[in-house]
Design goal:
The protein has about 120 residues and is an all-beta fold. It is about 0% helix and about 50% strand. The strands form 2 sheets. The chain has a 4-stranded antiparallel beta sheet with strand order 1-8-3-6, with no helix packed on it.
């Protein structure tokens, strides 16, 4: 599970919402953010959805790998990577056709830098 969020159920992200997976934090390599529920209006996420997400750094790292992960069940072992950002200057990305009930960010690797922010846009 994420390192610091035991809220059950987790907060939900609705269309138009902005959620902060990390907010000017200093996560270590391997640390997952808090997770967010992705509501499905049909009851099933078969159609897939579009997730927009953005990485921002207070001070740019020399190298970084941040992954966006989704899962059908909110269990650490169920999360699978659907996108990866390695831009040390930060970037905005869009992933389409995502199927899952939960989403989180995870820092796979980071060297240097500070103030890691990952925004998820519903």
């Amino acid at each position: 599970m994420p390192n610091y969020n035991a809220q059950n159920p987790p907060n939900s992200i609705y269309p138009g919402d902005v959620a902060f997976a990390f907010n000017a934090e200093a996560p270590a390599a391997g640390q997952a953010s808090q997770q967010f529920a992705l509501p499905s209006y049909s009851g099933f996420p078969e159609n897939g959805r579009t997730i927009r997400w953005q990485t921002i750094f207070g001070t740019a790292p020399t190298s970084v790998s941040v992954v966006l992960q989704t899962a059908m069940v909110d269990a650490d072992t169920q999360y699978a990577t659907v996108d990866t950002s390695t831009a040390t200057t930060g970037e905005a990305r869009t992933v389409t056709g995502v199927r899952g009930n939960f989403v989180r960010a995870k820092v796979s690797a980071i060297t240097g830098g500070s103030g890691v922010t990952v925004q998820l846009l519903g």
